[in-house]
Amino acid sequence: MLAVVAGGLLALLLALADADPSRRNSWFWLAVGLVSAGTLAWSWLKYGRQPAGVRQNNLWLRASTGRGAVAWVTGLVLTGFYVVLYWFSNDDGQGNFGLLTNLVHPLDGLSQALRARPADQWFLYGTFYTLAVLLMGGRALWKYRHSRYQLIRTVSVMFFQLGFAFLIPGLLQFFQQPEFYFSYFWPLKYDYLFPGTVTSLLQKGGLGVFMVFWGAVMSLVATPVLTYFYGKRWYCSWVCGCGGLAETAGDPYRHLSDKSRVAWRWEVRIIYPVLGLIVAITALLWVHFATGGTLLGAAGNVAAKWYGFAIGSVFSGVIGVGFYPIMGSRVWCRFGCPMAAYLGLLQKHFSRFRISTNGAQCISCGNCSNVCEMGIDVQQYAQRGAPIVRASCVGCGMCSTACPRGVLNLENGPREGRTQASPLIHADSLRILS
């Protein structure tokens, strides 16, 4: 089945190089069909015919998942694709999208049916992104079919990516309405609360007003409430498209996340300043708007554009996805996402969510730490029976799923239970782990 996938990738290269429109389209759709069929069939052969359960055999010995040659090539290809997508595929006004032209135009028919307009580089990206989530989501369903939590969570991210991040935005354009992603909120979709975006939406009538209302309420009201009851998992592991790609396409690389305290220090040093930066830019733009555009001049818009370039493009795209095979699947979520930082602060200081542990049952196998894509050394908590209350935890539940002894449990309980631990734990140990 991997040969079928390889054949699909070869067909994609032929589509990229073929100047004949008819053959190009045929090669493209053949590539999509072969990659899709091969991925799903391989997933069934690898996981569907074996007993259910998490297996981590030889992950560090494979060239594809142990930072070997295959991993580096994969990382370079992904990084290169994002670089071309962001900076070398702009439409020249005549339907030429640079190096991606031969991949964009085969999607014109689908784009016309969904959006009533020809395809562009962003429609190509959205199609590939959604296809990756769906196909690798199918793989995850086979792999984790023994866990009801993982099955529901995987179906959820597949549903939100297909419906809320692909079909609905396209249909809105079909009916000549603003393109809007109902599953992305400020500060991740930072411009949704910028005065320019808000003003533009309000001029679109009732639907635009609803979009502004939805964005503001979800960001400022619903997010704190939902995080209080369920932790950041309600969004990062169930709804967000970035998290959806990490949990599906990035699943083979989750063990690569750095568990060291040095990595944790860099995480804190980077992610909270990113949050502070977008909060400051948003506030300044609103002050600038309220003063009639006299306070900042062009500085506010320049700052927003540079934020979009450095954080929205380079960090979240090029590094966030391109570095999956080298640094793990949650590089962006862990080090750069302002939404993750916002949710993390709420989770650590106000939420009822925690992962409880039973140290008496822990056999120190290390499975829990190995599968944690957020770089948390879960085993240290489990050995001590300490509850895990970390801002970075996305509540994916993989540590609990991988534990052979049932030591770890995801809970939404009273806040006082978040700090209870075994009486054998020394206070200094709890301080180090927090």
UniProtKB/TrEMBL annotation:
- In its keyword annotation, does this UniProt entry include Transferase? no
What PROSITE patterns does the record point to? Answer: 4FE4S_FER_1 (PS00198), 4FE4S_FER_2 (PS51379)
Q: Does the keyword Cell membrane apply?
A: no
Source species, domain of life? Bacteria
Name-wise, this protein is 4Fe-4S binding protein
Q: Where is the 4Fe-4S ferredoxin-type domain?
A: 353-381, 385-413
Task: Supply the source organism for this entry.
Answer: Hymenobacter negativus
Which chain regions cross the lipid bilayer?
Answer: 27-47, 68-88, 122-142, 154-175, 207-229, 270-291, 306-326
- Please give the coiled-coil regions recorded for this protein: none
Instruction: Report keywords, A-Z.
Output: 4Fe-4S, Electron transport, Iron, Iron-sulfur, Membrane, Metal-binding, Transmembrane, Transmembrane helix, Transport
Gene3D superfamilies reported for this sequence: 3.30.70.20
